[in-house]
Amino acid sequence: MDFHDRKPIYQQIREQIEDQILDGRLKEEDKAPSTTQLVSFYKVNHLTAAKGVNELVEENILYKRRGIGMFVASGAVEKLINKRRKVFGEEYITELVREAEKLHITERELLEMIRERMRK
């Protein structure tokens, strides 16, 4: 996590949990880190950590078991992939195309540049 990132800390915490789900470190139905664990690990305020976790609960990525903790919901991976793909298209691809247009990079050149990067 990079506290120098422009994103709010709660959002960085949330994305760290999402990344752990997407890369398989946290599997569906696994117990997720508690807010207390997140506070201790990231050295942040309890409300900051809770905000990131609560957003994941609102999106049905995590769910609460009263008195036991937070767990990764069934279907969380698919929901996260769909969400991230949408964001990827809206944020990264749109910006990439805009910059390519400014630099007069053709579609063909851009696709070749992408293919080269993906081979690495």
TrEMBL record:
Q: Where is the HTH gntR-type domain?
A: 7-75
Q: A GO molecular-function term, please?
A: DNA binding
Q: Does the keyword RNA-binding apply?
A: no
Highest taxon of the lineage: Bacteria
> Which keywords label this protein?
DNA-binding, Transcription, Transcription regulation
Q: Per the UniProt record, which residue ranges are transmembrane?
A: none
Which InterPro entries does UniProt cross-reference here?
Answer: Tscrpt_reg_HTH_GntR, WH-like_DNA-bd_sf, WH_DNA-bd_sf
- Which CDD domains would you find in this protein's record? WHTH_GntR
Name of a matching Pfam family: GntR
SMART domains linked to this entry: HTH_GNTR
UniProt-listed PANTHER family? GNTR-FAMILY TRANSCRIPTIONAL REGULATOR, HTH-TYPE TRANSCRIPTIONAL REPRESSOR YTRA
Record protein name field: GntR family transcriptional regulator
- Which organism encodes this protein? Alkalicoccus saliphilus
- Lineage summary: Bacteria, Bacillati, Bacillota, Bacilli, Bacillales
